[in-house]
From TrEMBL:
GO MF entry, a single one: DNA binding
Source organism, top-level taxon: Bacteria
Species for this entry: Anoxybacillus kestanbolensis
NCBIfam families according to UniProt: HTH_metalloreg (NF033788)
PROSITE patterns, sorted: HTH_ARSR_2
Name this polypeptide is given: Transcriptional regulator
Phylogenetic classification of the source organism: Bacteria, Bacillati, Bacillota, Bacilli, Bacillales
Alphabetic keyword roster: DNA-binding, Transcription, Transcription regulation
InterPro entries xref list: ArsR-like_HTH, HTH_ArsR_DNA-bd_dom, Metal_resp_trans_reg, WH-like_DNA-bd_sf, WH_DNA-bd_sf
Domain (HTH arsR-type) ranges: 8-101
Amino acid sequence: MEHQYEQLDEETLFIVSQTFKALSDPTRIRILHLLSSGEFSVTEIANRLSLLQSTVSHQLRFLKNLRLVKYRREGTTLYYSHDDEHVLHILEQTIRHARDH
């Protein structure tokens, strides 16, 4: 059976490359992996991952711009959660793959 080859358009290429860029950073991987288990404030993320709050905020901004995380405000606190099941699935599959080796 012959497979139909479909050229990737520029927008798709950009989104795919940005997604892999997001997943290429160990800190962002750790944050996304934590958010796969629930919703956390910046302070909670920083404490659980032993990171500076400024580092967490910077990485969350990067992830939010790619729509990989979302947030809700409660008073003055922002609570972050993952916002892309597809990317989360890729991340979890890759973690499983790495642990199997």
